[in-house]
Design a protein that fits this description.
Elements (H helix, E strand, L loop, with lengths): L5 H5 L6 H4 L7 E5 L5 E4 L1 H6 L34 H8 L4 E4 L5 E13 L2 E13 L4
Antiparallel strand pairs: 1-2, 1-5, 3-4, 4-5
Length: about 140
């Protein structure tokens, strides 16, 4: 899994949404295939996915965001991220997340459709908002 440059992920966002929200901490950024398999991440994403301990392998996004096991990631035509997920991110919905080491937290998620080598991919940027104790 390759590192994604923080600048490459935030530079070309329409309206530079990140600066408007005054986020100071860089987001956890994940790149997914259409079926929800995580194929790339930035350093924060690797830490969350526990890749720092030499583990590898591809994980499904529902391991981190359980709600996404119940919702289709793409609209019916498989051309764009599900409008319901886009709506939730636009209203600032705080998704419940679970790190692979068991740490529970909530955060805002932002979804983007991207194309790389004629392949449709989904970029998710996670901005943690609060952490809960381990269960």
């Amino acid at each position: 899994m390759n590192d994604i440059s923080e600048d490459a992920l935030t530079t070309n966002l329409p309206g530079n949404h990140l600066q408007q929200q005054n986020y100071i901490i860089p987001p956890i950024t994940l790149i997914l295939t259409e079926d929800g398999t995580i194929v790339e991440s930035n350093k924060k994403g690797k830490k969350l996915l526990d890749y720092s301990s030499g583990k590898s392998g591809k994980k499904h996004i529902s391991k981190l965001v359980p709600l996404l096991a119940e919702v289709h990631l793409l609209d019916k035509g498989n051309e764009r991220v599900n409008p319901y997920l886009r709506f939730l991110s636009r209203i600032g919905y705080h998704f419940k997340l679970t790190g692979l080491r068991g740490r529970k937290f909530a955060g805002e998620l932002f979804f983007s459709d991207i194309t790389f080598h004629n392949q449709h991919l989904i970029m998710i940027m996670i901005f943690p908002s609060r952490y809960e104790s381990r269960h």
